[in-house]
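Response to reviewer comment R2.3. The reviewers asked that we include at least one raw input/output pair. We reproduce the pair for Na(+)/H(+) antiporter NhaA here without editing.
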Amino acid sequence: MTTPHGSTRVFSRGSWTEASRIAAVLRRETVGGVLLLIGTVVALVWANSPWADSYEALRDTRVGPASLHLDLTLGTWAADGLLAVFFFVAGLELKREFVAGDLRDPRRAVLPVAAAVGGMVVPAVLYVLVNLGGGDALRGWAIPTATDIAFALAVLAVISTHLPSALRTFLLTLAVVDDLLAIAVIAVFYTSSLAVGWLALALVPLAVFGLLVQKRVRSWWLLLPLALLTWVLVHESGVHATVAGVLLAFTVPVVRSEAAGGPGAGPGLAEHLEHRFRPISAGVAVPVFAFFAAGVTVGGLSGLVESLGDRVALGIVVGLVVGKVLGIVGATWLVTRFTRAEFADELGWPDLVGMALLGGIGFTVSLLIGELAFGTGSERDDHVKVGVLVGTLTSALLASVVLRLRNRRYRRIEALEAVDADHDGIPDVYQRDPDTPGAPGLRRGSADG
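Raw output as returned:
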């Protein structure tokens, strides 16, 4: 969105249609976040109880056909299988944003994409600096790069902040982009051996799946077997199987074909599949993964101190708490510096710092990368879990303080966004020219607080 002076507004409102859709998505993710928290707490309590052996036995129970190399532990099934559903939904969300959402406008897309990149690069750099000379510790450089949107939204639900829709959209988009960048990192840097033949074979069911969805075929008995076969072949290739979820998502069309009425005829297949699979992702896949991944034996205060004495855990905490803030805020500053962007109504740098601290809530993908880097159940993997938990909780607490201090301002914005004088179901602020001087909810210049 541009101002009368030709500059871009940061955190400006998008369209009402997109704001409504994002609000619905965030409500579902918030429920998933609560379930994620429950799974995490249950795992931590069980793993630190007298019955810890039974937790490990359950996590390490193997199921599946050995002839297909799929006799995997339940923990691996959760990481490789269930998280593929999570990344399928994330891929659908990202594609929809850039094809049919507000982010199809490059001026609106540049900020969350730049912030996501900055929020990955700086934590990785800080982790490397903390672990220089640490040998294999450097394998974990990507652990503090990802943001867990479900966990972040659960924190928002707990602190009951009246966060404006533009900030919520920014947080969701940033988290989805960095999840997709994280899966690219996993595919490139955490693939220990690559079987090109299996990977080439995976392209066959993937292409058939893509052909069917491009023809708007919705029959689950055709699509599901092709998706499962693609997943199995990608798994056999040595590439992490969650990559299959992203590849499948990117083949799905976002808008309706002209024969079906075009973009204005209702939701496309991507939105249809996202609606079907998001409850499975948020309500089952992520909480179950958290349950199997978060169970670390801390060993009391002394054990916690010992774990944080490992530079791997320390690097993760520094990356999540400090690196995310520096990366997201720094990237946003560069965007505003070189595009003459200005903050929208009553929002400023303190709000961005709050968002950046929420970005430091890294959990699902961070734990996954930790397992890939150091091996499930290893001592270093336990230290990774402690680092991720401490970094996440610290970021959550700091974000809560910052956002609660701004809550009165957010309530005013929320009240403005709720005014519907003509009772047509669309708030008035979405029906006025945002570039008109003096338009409600907007002002010229940047906000400092």
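The chain has a mean pLDDT of 83. DSSP finds 16 helices and four strands in the chain. Further pairs are available on request from the corresponding author.
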